[in-house]
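Notes from hallway chat w/ T.B., transcribed later so I don't forget. T.B. wanted the structure written out for a chain they're using in a teaching module, and asked if we could keep both sequence and structure tokens in one place. Agreed to drop them here.
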Amino acid sequence: MNGTQNAGQAGKEQTAALPFLRPAPRSPPYGFKPQISRPNTKTRIFAAAPLRERHSMSLTSTQPQALQPHPDLFAPITLGPVQLRNRIIKAATSEGRSPQGLVTDDLIDFHLDYVRGGAGLTTVAYCCVSQEGASAPGQILMSEKALPGLRRLTDAVHAEGGAVSAQLGHAGMVASKKITGVTSMGPSRFVNPSSMEYCRAMRREEIPMVIDQFGEAAKIAVEAGFDAVELHFGHNYLPSSFLSPLLNRRKDEYGGNIENRSRFVREIAQRVREVVGNKVAVIAKISMDDGLPGSIWLTESIRTAQLLDQDRTLDALELTQGSSIIRQMYLFRGDVPVSDFAAVVKEPMKTGVRLFGKFALGSFPYKDLYMLEAARQFVPVMKNTKLILLGGINNLEHMNTGMQEGFDFIAMGRSLLREPDLINRIKEDGNVTSRCVHCNKCMYTVYSRTHCVLEPDSHFSPLDDSVSGYSVPEEHRLSVTPV
């Protein structure tokens, strides 16, 4: 893919002086609410209507719409070459269950819980395309060495009637030298305000190397038996950072205007599609906005999505928000677990987290379906690519709302982390809602084994069912004088 340089604009970009440390608004600064007509009945009971036709029909509807019938969430649905048993996806949540970069029985059991609990597709996260691309401890490295374990995982999921996706990513400036052993890299020089580590600028010749790493990782996924791959283009990880005018100040064909800044993700998606063909579905996860002033926002992210859609390299696009560099709570919303984060890091970071953690993480109130307002702007744009709605989905009403708004799939993260069997329970009783309280204490568990702290078997250990009652140790017993 060729493109012209836009060095003049790129040279005027903001420096890495961390201007985003200014206080942020407590709600997304959209400033406008375009009214996009909801699809009419013909649109959403489409069954066999082509994707392009579906969305063109939704744009021609100008009449106010009541809530319309929608596809059955629990009926089988195709995603690229794969048939899923329903439209519900277990979203990627970093797992920390691969201490040697390899699959463990613990990781397999983790995903089997979601498959047995009703998820149509479970996502293994996070799968590094290279050693220097790790973002946290205990992540899988996509390598020949990992293949036997990956095959065990996919075989186990398929035996339960489920499907499984591998999230492929390179952390870029989110990576820490303490984990990878090397200095992190990004489109331009930068200092990560969360880790206070320096990030170097990628050399031009390194860009095709990383693109090939994504291709090789996708090849491993196919050989391992995965049904899909998810390309992590969000949260200011390496591909996402190229999309940001704040973080990308390059003067070559990968910097400048949004077409140039989108070049890296387009070439990754193209390379992956060349490698996998139609053997697996290809999904990309992209940040609609990252919550940093002067960085990724809807105006340009919609354009990036439009370019990817035009390329026809993706089967689906999962829409997300937020950054893993700073103001991480913009992604999660809700309580800010500062003391819990401080407890798992060492000095001097521990003191820094205690003093400035809430300011650095940001504070954004939780509300149900909190990504919907932004995500619905993408519906009329996508003509060839299906859309996945994420964010604050806790019950059947939320899922149906997503379907009525024109989305094809629903992705759930914390609600399923809290209750892996939630989907089956909702299918049996439409009034069931998630028990997740959005305390976000699961966030700090990524440094060990990601889990819900309100689930005692995960947070502590399972009780021994063979033991009944409690016997007080002899040395703790008090002598009792009979009455």
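Follow-up for T.B.: The radius of gyration is 23 Å. Might be a good example for the class.
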